[in-house]
Amino acid sequence: MEISSTQIKELRDQTGISVMQCKKALEEADGDMAKALVILKKKRSEAAEKKSDRELGAGTIGVYVHNTNEVAAFVKLASETDFVSKNEEFVKLANDIAMHVAAMNPKYIARDEVDAEAMEAAKAVFAEEVKDKPAEMQEKIMEGKLAAYFKDQILLEQPFVKNPDMTIGEMVSGAVQKFGENVTLVEVQRMSIKG
Predict the structure, then answer these.
(1) Cα R_g (the chain), whole angstroms
(2) Three-state DSSP class for 74?
(3) Other C-beta atoms within 10 Å of 157: how many?
């Protein structure tokens, strides 16, 4: 099947990923845009995993101050080189994540930051809800309830406020794929007048 430049442009506009990668994904998906998006998401995760152990030596601070001046957020988004960290799109990503943090106020950046005390408290609450379920299903149901409960509190798992079809984690993984470097969200701070 012949892939048109219009299809490639449309996919690139949706994902921000290189023209060549968009073309390859469309060819693999026989021109099906939805399938091409899935292929790119899969490749995004693989690319992020491959580069995750690379050393971070640069980065940028993303900043967002709400127009009421009552809420502000700062994020430190790290990369391997200044070449990437000074890139306009990289800086925009950091600022978008800061805006999201200001709006959603996550407690944790990643799931591995959830402390044992918070996990045990949540398990105690959900234990009551799963006790009447079949024994072989209780653990799986508990995992699902915990995942759903903490999803709203973990930044990388939250749907992006400007595009709920993509999580913050997918945006960071997309940056890894786009820039060809390890990109990591290192630190997040949120301040609010109202607490």
Answers:
(1) 19
(2) strand
(3) 19
**Helical residues (DSSP H) of the chain, grouped into ranges:** 5-15, 19-28, 33-51, 82-85, 88-104, 116-130, 135-151, 168-179
What is 5-51's CATH number, 3.90.850.10, 1.20.1250.20, 1.10.8.10, 3.30.565.10?
1.10.8.10
Residues 60 and 85 sit within 8 Å (Cβ to Cβ): yes
Q: Per residue in 41-75, pLDDT tens?
A: 777 666 556 555 656 678 899 999 999 999 999 99
Q: Tens of pLDDT along 141-154? A: 888 888 888 888 99
Q: Please state, in angstroms and rounded to a whole number, the distance separating the CA atoms of residues 82 and 12.
A: 24
Give the global pTM.
0.68
For the chain, what are the domain ranges? 5-51, 58-109+153-192, 115-151
Question: What is d(CA 70, CA 187) in angstroms, rounded to the nearest whole number?
Answer: 21
Q: Homologous superfamily of 58-109+153-192 in CATH?
A: Elongation factor Ts, dimerisation domain (3.30.479.20)
Write down the residue that tokens 């799963």 correspond to: 130
Q: Residue 194: helix, strand or coil by DSSP?
A: coil
